[in-house]
Specification:
The complex is a heterodimer of chains A (about 1000) and B (about 90).
Chain A: E1 14-23, E2 26-32, H1 36-42, E3 47-50, E4 57-59, E5 71-75, E6 81-86, E7 97-100, H2 114-117, H3 126-130, H4 136-150, E8 163-176, H5 180-191, E9 196-199, E10 218-219, H6 224-236, E11 241-244, E12 247-253, E13 257-263, H7 270-273, E14 277-291, E15 295-297, E16 310-312, H8 313-323, E17 330-335, H9 339-349, E18 353-359, H10 367-375, E19 378-380, E20 383-389, E21 396-402, E22 409-417, E23 420-424, E24 427-429, H11 432-436, E25 441-444, E26 449-452, E27 459-461, H12 471-486, E28 496-497, E29 522-524, E30 529-530, H13 531-539, H14 545-552, H15 566-576, H16 580-583, H17 597-601, H18 618-623, E31 627-631, E32 634-639, H19 647-660, E33 662-666, E34 671-676, H20 680-687, E35 700-706, E36 712-722, E37 725-730, H21 735-749, E38 756-759, E39 764-770, H22 774-781, E40 796-802, E41 805-811, E42 819-825, H23 829-840, E43 845-847, H24 850-860, E44 908-915, E45 927-929, E46 940-950, E47 955-963, E48 972-976, E49 981-987
Parallel strand pairs in A: 1-7, 8-9, 8-14, 9-11, 14-27, 16-23, 17-18, 17-23, 18-19, 33-43
Antiparallel strand pairs in A: 1-2, 3-4, 5-6, 5-7, 10-28, 12-13, 13-14, 15-24, 20-21, 21-22, 25-26, 29-30, 31-32, 33-39, 34-37, 34-38, 35-36, 36-37, 39-42, 40-41, 41-42, 44-47, 44-49, 45-46, 46-47, 48-49
Chain B: E1 3-6, E2 10-13, E3 18-22, H1 36-44, E4 52-58, E5 66-72, E6 77-83
Antiparallel strand pairs in B: 1-2, 3-4, 4-5, 5-6
Classes of the chains: A alpha+beta (about 1000), B mainly beta (about 90).
Chain lengths: ~1000, ~90
């Protein structure tokens, strides 16, 4: 294999395990332990993608989660493809195939790069300013164009075949981040017997200490890697600690509730992934949280700071030390601090040529710059890089002296050849999770970073995410603060060797020898926003940082303030002359790093997505070819097609049979609430609009329930079973909310009432038999009930037996036919149903579904709550004044029925509609107008709520809610449809058997 | 993402509870004697406080009991939890 940029030795890779992978179709090789980024760099590949707006070539910039440029798509097939993954985080495995994003036709020749030439006319807010009018172009032109141009990866087009999992976890202390601070904290806590959860997003622990120079950094006389190895081994031996690697905390909510995603198989070759859970979402409740999330190195902001071959200094050091990869052969370094010198020494010791170090400071008294000087590396003090050359890879930098106050450049520029420029702008504490949890920040004026304010939450930040830098400080602070935080007495001594560090100096925007409009100094690489964009936004009047962020898109998308945040704030602070501490930061939103939909959904897919409720007779319905309708979580038999019968034909047949012979309906899903107690009658009086005191035992009554705003909420029949005992039925969909509302009133408003409610919906199977033959069928099925009209009139109830099974029979009707409802214990439901079918055979009994039920009740003008009503309809609007008691002192909703708005006469009211053409069936939801105009808009005065072809009347019927409808009876109205206008006449709502003779047929 | 200390069951995850709006609104005993404005005040008008707010909660996936609590809406800290009819501890 040719890894011409691989060093001959070193790194935490396994050189005996060669791995082949594909990048943009080309087969390449790396070693086990490589990331995609390190393997590409080993092959000399820097150019990964094109930038978002200008399509400028972009290369690998970092070595971790903060990567803004090297976003790739991983492709296996149409179902397994992941967009927007960072090459710096992907561990390579045999068979990995990745491609560049946001470039077409290829990363090397990208047509969109023409945008770069036009960049002077694509400033901040370009899209907002350009794609504004005409509105008609939005749908087909602008949106299409923007979506195509934006192109951040592709979604899979097929169902995700992977398995995902959720896990809930509770612990005493959660430690986020296993760098030196996190490891010391974990050991301190575990050693004291605390129940610890330690997580880190990377495969290996140790953080930046992994690639620290071992000559200059030692802990207890151990080299960094040895100390990490020893500490991890010690941790694993504690029984009270759980350790998770490849686990990224996505969100930190209040009450120490954290969401994390653990990657279990993404790093494995395809053959080892089989049958394993891909990712696990952890929902953690921690008594205490220790954040040791580290810090992110800052870039430098100068003209053309975005070319491939410009990388963070710490990343270059990591590639050399951890992966044995050199990122260039001829290297320059641009810095404002001492840390970059450690990179220089590391590279020099590995035989890689460091040509020059450009430092904005006048000098440094640190030990590392001194060493570099001794090694003969040329240091340009008080200088800056002001421009770079090279299109697909950097090949030259322009260096010039800075003026005394750093505000401008002086002297002549010097051009230096190089194939890699390391930049180091200091470190920014990673306070993202801290601020997500509600923590506030302070600003350090000397060191130019935001850090966590002291807080009283059950959490603390330690190490560099707390603004603590230097190995000795980090380890000492971590140990001492953990002891205090967790009330631990045991102390451990650490001896630390670290380089003496010099001062730090900061320039947010490096001055240039050009006028600022001619420079392209990128602040946010991922969103392509430059320092000039930010200045423009400020000139255009945007003052709030949140507004500048949105207008320029700085720090948005997956960046969330990782690379592109501090400099944007710094530039705003300088231009507006505001102190950074007063300016504050933008909000860092979860997730800290992207998580998959699969992990969020977990096992709740397919049939586990939602609960399915089936009635006791469900198997019978299935056997007899029922089509089902979802009503809430219930599966209700919708209609029973016979053979190849259409839905329309089946419903017509079922509806006709129910009126001419006998029909049978499964009504088990209706909500049933058992009401007992000495105040049960008074309670019903208060919750229904009509009066209940005088209902005799053994009688049934229909009730309408309102909200206190006077709008219809639910309806159903309630039966008085005994002196203090009722059974209430509710709508299928309303059962749970009605129960909740009644409980609420009992517990909070009327605690003096002696009433107990029990939901018994699932306890009973309900079989409704209707039609002229229903009485004869019931007589065959049940024993010891006298069905004579005098003994068992309409709206009454009897206890009886079906063989030895107790049953309650109610004579109530939703179809307008003679009708009985048999209630039996749920587990007998199917056998009693089958008995009815057998008994009804000679009378032509026909099972009918919910659709025929809806049709039959529409013929009678009975409302369905939720279909004729929508939360804005009163009983008076429904022309149901008869059910509203005038005598009762109060009931829920009474006072609202005579508010100025509810007594308006022109409210929308419930009416019937008859079409001019009796064959024309209206569309439910169709809008109704009084006057047809040539084109919209027309004044809508109502809508069709229910519409059917009635087989019993041989004409189309419809119900509607129409403004001032009560007064429009006999009037013509119109229903404009896309290709025609339908004429209708307003009618009464009862279409069939106005006198109710059929109830006693 | 609160943890709520149900006065009947103890500390439970927020997912077990449902929110019931402002607490201590007493339904008028004689609604018929109220003017439209007075009734509207009870029916529609709700406070929207930044700071300590008194709220009704229901342990809907637990004991199904209603209770009240006081919560600081600026940081979601729950200061007291108390039964219907009781007064908050502060």
């Amino acid at each position: 294999m040719s890894n011409e940029y691989r060093l001959s030795s070193g790194g935490q890779i396994n050189r005996s395990e060669i791995i082949s992978f594909k990048f943009n179709g080309k087969i390449l090789y790396g070693y086990k332990g490589d990331t995609l980024a390190s393997a590409l760099l080993a092959n000399g590949i820097h150019l990964i993608g094109r930038s978002f707006k200008y399509h400028r070539p972009r290369g690998i910039f970092t070595s971790g989660v903060e990567e803004p440029n090297a976003l790739v798509q991983i492709i296996k097939d149409e179902a397994k493809t992941d967009p927007n993954l960072r090459a710096t985080q992907i561990e390579i495995y045999e068979g990995l195939s990745a491609t560049s994003q946001n470039c077409w036709p290829s990363v090397k020749f990208d047509l969109g790069s023409i945008n770069n030439l036009f960049s002077p006319i694509i400033p901040a807010g370009f899209y907002y300013k350009t794609f504004m009018w005409p509105a008609s172009l939005w749908k087909n032109v602008y949106e299409y164009f923007i979506r195509k141009a934006a192109g951040l990866g592709k979604s899979p087009t097929k169902k995700d075949p992977d398995m995902y999992d959720h896990n809930y976890y509770h612990c005493e202390v959660l430690i986020v981040g296993a760098g030196p601070a996190g490891l010391v904290a974990a050991k301190t806590a575990a050693n004291a017997g605390k129940r610890v959860l330690l997580v880190d997003e990377r495969p290996n622990f140790g953080g930046n200490l992994n690639f620290a120079n071992e000559n200059y950094n030692k802990i207890n006389e151990l080299a960094p890697l040895e100390w990490i190895k020893k500490t991890c081994l010690e941790l694993k031996n504690y029984k009270n600690i759980k350790i998770l690697n490849r686990t990224s905390v996505a969100a930190y909510h209040n009450y120490n509730y954290l969401i994390m995603m653990q990657n279990l198989t993404d790093h494995l070759p395809d053959k080892d992934k089989k049958g394993k859970i891909r990712q696990r979402l952890w929902k953690v409740r921690a008594k205490k949280v220790i954040l040791a999330t580290g810090s992110i190195e800052r870039p430098m902001i100068f003209d053309c700071n975005d070319r491939p071959g410009i990388m963070l200094s710490s990343a270059v050091r990591k590639y050399a030390n951890s992966y044995g990869v050199k990122c260039g052969n001829n290297i320059s370094i641009f810095t404002n601090n001492d840390d970059a010198y450690e990179t220089a020494i590391t590279l020099h010791n590995k035989g890689i040529k460091v040509k020059s170090i450009i430092d904005i400071r006048e000098k440094s008294n640190g030990s590392l710059p001194k060493k570099c000087d001794e090694l003969g590396i040329k240091i340009h003090w008080k200088s800056a890089v002001i421009y770079t050359e090279g299109y697909k890879k950097i090949n030259k930098i322009h260096v010039i002296n800075l003026s005394k106050d750093n505000s401008s450049v002086v002297g002549n520029k010097l051009k230096i050849d190089c194939d890699l420029l390391c930049v180091s702008g200091g470190y920014t504490p990673a306070v993202h999770l801290y601020t997500q949890s509600g923590g506030k920040l302070d600003y350090n004026e000397d060191k130019h970073y935001f850090f966590p304010k002291k807080n009283t939450l059950n959490q603390m930040s330690i190490g560099s995410c707390n603004g603590t830098f230097g190995l000795k400080n980090i380890i000492t602070e971590s140990h001492e603060k953990t002891k205090e935080f967790l009330d631990i007495k045991k102390t451990e001594q650490f001896s630390i060797l670290e380089p003496r560090s010099g001062n730090f100096e900061n320039i947010w925007l490096i001055p240039s020898n050009k006028i600022s409009g001619k420079t392209k100094s990128f602040v946010d690489y991922q969103n392509d926003s430059t320092a000039n964009d930010i200045k423009l936004a400020l000139r255009e009047g945007f003052k709030s940082i949140e507004h500048v962020k949105r207008y320029t898109t700085t720090g948005m998308a997956t960046d969330q303030g990782k690379i592109a945040n501090m400099h944007a704030l710094g530039i705003i602070s300088e231009v507006t002359n505001t102190k950074l501490g007063e300016l504050g930061t933008t909000t860092f939103r979860p997730p800290y790093s992207p998580i998959t939909f699969g992990a969020l959904v977990g096992r709740n897919v397919g049939k586990f997505f939602d609960i399915v409720r089936k009635t006791p007779m469900h198997n019978w319905h299935e056997k007899y070819n029922a089509k089902f309708e979802d009503v809430g979580q219930w599966k209700r038999a919708w209609y029973y097609p016979s053979g190849k019968e259409s839905m329309y034909d089946a419903v017509q047949r079922e509806s006709k049979a129910a009126r001419s012979n006998a029909g049978i309906l499964d009504a088990s899903t209706l909500g049933k609430i058992d009401i007992q107690g000495s105040d049960a009658s008074e309670f019903l009086n208060r919750v229904y609009t009509n009066a209940w005191n005088k209902l005799a035992i053994g009688k049934c009554r229909y009730g309408l329930m309102l909200n206190d705003d006077g709008m219809v909420y639910d309806d159903g029949v309630t039966t008085r079973l005994g002196e203090n005992h009722y059974i209430m039925t509710t709508t299928t969909g309303g059962a749970a909310t009605v129960m909740g509302k009644l409980e609420d009133f009992l517990q909070t408003e009327w605690p003096e009432l002696n009433v107990y409610l029990t939901s018994v919906t699932d306890h009973f199977a309900t079989i409704s038999v209707c039609g002229p033959h229903s009485k004869k069928i019931l007589e065959k099925v049940t024993q010891n009930i006298d069905y004579s009209d005098t003994n068992f009139p309409h709206m009454s109830f009897k206890n009886g037996l079906v063989d030895k099974i107790n049953c309650r029979v109610m004579r109530i009707s939703f179809t307008g036919e003679l009708s009985y409802e048999i209630n039996v214990q749920a587990n007998y439901g199917q056998s009693v149903w089958e008995k009815c079918i057998v008994a009804g055979k000679e009378y032509g009994i026909t099972p009918y579904g919910t659709e025929a039920m809806h049709l039959l009740r529409a013929e009678k003008g009975f409302i369905i709550v939720g279909q004729e009503t929508d939360g804005t309809v009163t009983p008076v609007d429904l022309q149901m004044d008869w059910i509203v008691s005038k005598k009762k002192y109060d009931f829920i909703g009474k006072r609202s029925l005579y508010r100025s708005d509810t007594i308006r006469e022109d409210r929308k009211q419930y009416v019937g509609l008859i079409t001019k053409d009796p064959k024309e069936i209206l569309e439910e939801g169709a809008q109704i107008v009084a006057e047809v105009k040539n084109k919209p808009p027309m004044d809508m005065i109502g809508h069709v709520t229910s519409s059917y072809y009635s087989p019993n009347l041989n004409k189309s019927i419809a119900l509607a809610i129409v403004k001032n409808g009560k007064k429009l009876k006999g009037k013509k109205l119109y229903i404009p449809m896309p290709n025609k206008t339908i004429e209708v006449t307003v009618s009464d709502t009862i279409f069939l058997d106005k006198e109710g003779k059929r109830l006693n047929a | 993402m609160f943890i709520i200390n149900c006065p009947y069951c103890g500390e439970r995850d927020h997912a077990e509870f449902s929110y019931g709006g402002e607490a201590h609104l007493v339904r008028p005993k004689q609604p018929t004697e109220l003017s439209d404005d007075q009734w509207a005040e009870y029916l529609f008008m709700r406070k929207n406080i930044k700071g300590i707010q008194y709220e009704r909660w229901n342990h809907s996936h637990g004991c199904r009991r209603w209770f009240n609590l006081s919560r600081d809406t600026s940081n979601d800290k729950i200061h007291s939890v108390y039964k219907i009819g009781e007064k908050p501890s502060e």
